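Final report, closing paragraph on structural work. Over the funding period we assembled a curated collection of sequence-structure pairs, and we close with a single example.
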Amino acid sequence: MSITPRASFEPAQARGERYQALVPDTLDLAARCRLALQGIANTSDPDCYGQMWFTMVYACRQPYLAHNGADPVCTPKYAEALPMLRTACGSQEHLALETEQMAHLLDGISPDDGLYYCRWQPDRPWHSNYMPHVYEQTPEDIAQVAGVGRMMRAMLTWRERDGDSRWDEHIRAMARGLGRIAIKRDGYAYYPDGGHSLQYAYPRSGWLHTQEPESDTESGEGSVLDSLGHPIYALARWYAASGDEQALDLAGRLARFATLPKMWGGLAEEVGVHGGEQGHFHAHPHGHMGGLRGLLAYGAAAHDARILEFVRRSYEHLRTYMIPRAGWLPGNGIGDGVVHAEGCNLGDLVALGVRMSDLGLGDYWEDVDAVVRNLLMEQQLTDVEALRVVSAASPPRAERSAWPGQETSERMPERLLGAFTSWGAPNRLPVGSIMGCCVANASLGLAFAWEGALRCQGDTAQINLLVNRASRLADVDSYLPYEGKVVVHNKAARRIALRVLSWIDRRTLALTVGGLPRPIEWVGSYLLVDDLKPGDEVVMRFAVPESTVSYTANHRVWRQERVYTITLRGSTIVAVSPEADGPRDIPIYRRAHLRSDQAPMVWVDRFVPERELRSW
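Its predicted structure, as stored:
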């Protein structure tokens, strides 16, 4: 079928400077963003309103993609990610799909109440079958509050990219719509789990009930904050962009509900520790981190020190369940001992680390570096042959959908290249279907890391991550992990602030500018280089240590405790033990080539955008 959206507008091409450069063949976030853009485009369905194929299955004899009720809720994530990825890499591919996808999403906005609805349509009989065993299924349009928040965020991103206010009417009306359906109590507000179609979904006919959630684990998803965090985040972003006081007031009311002690708390707490007041949690890390991201945006917009403290303490507690140097975090239930890290978590970890560092809540660039170099890279699918091996070793499909258009096996599994798996263990990508939400969130993590890696402000370039990166003031060539060498090609910066990782022994560090030694000046973890001229080449050299360490995952969790031994070159994992040996597991960290002492070189097309998207 071919469907034409009511809204239409011209594709926005990536504008900026393009040139070729010979660089170390090391971590290149722009190249990974280009690959992620392909993964998102190839898992979107132009014949079904541009919606994502939420379910992606490669571990069966005939791999396939399938639609379900989560498609319209999560497709705005794709619409947010595509412009951010395009800004990073400069790709001009899939512009028509990107534009048509957003046009269809805009068709879902009601002119009556401003909300974004998942519309019931006869050609989508799977309209709301994400959790049919939990919620009543009827042919009615629904506004799932997380989806509404995601749609606001997508429009805010397009607004920033386009540099105009044509989006304001939709965004403002959506903020008002969220206010109208919120249940307000003294000092706070919430959305009920209405029992219709999806978790926290508002049907056009009105809430089926307005009962207040009594814990965060309520709903079929098992998380209130998974739905609540997105509206808070979007409302706070809109206030920061527009000064809309009503939006900030609603975000504050929702934030006060989201931080009630009944919504938090670990499975067991030390005597004297009130985990509910400190943001401790034990289930659905992605849902909680989504809530934390919303709270962080609100705390920054409202200058609410208590909310910001809450987010920081919650994140610090979360790290105790992690293997931070691998970027690994248990999946959907910390206390349940799920060994697999959810793909959505990776984007959340990057976002929290970057934004908390920006706000001065701590220096979390080391956490971001670990996630980005390791599990985020490994969970992005780059090897189609590995997918074919898993498919060949898997059983045939048990049954197929009877609904026309719900499934396809066309170009599978090739079209998954660039997408992200939904689950990752410390040593393998385990068997399991891929969820479109994870493809989107992990892809956004790439874009967040690219944006945060190097910031240009005035005539100062601040380099936060030692990765390859081009910008208007300076270009960075990183030889890590092969060599302890970072080269900054100055274009127009007068000053460079370069963050030095904690594992670098400062006694081994040497700095030259234009081939001449330069005394090293420090401000905290940043090495400062002043009085630069266009064309100067800044070179930092240091030793790269190799170390082997062991970490226990899911300590004292029944039948789930595992010890993993990882070998790192600097902060890059180059080997892991035990290796994966399951016939349907994809091994990760097979990186023996990274242990060479000389980085290979490669010619690449570099892109510097006219405008970077920083207000995410």
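The first strand starts at residue 16 and ends at 24. Residues 511 and 517 are 6 Å apart (CA to CA). We thank the funder for supporting this effort.
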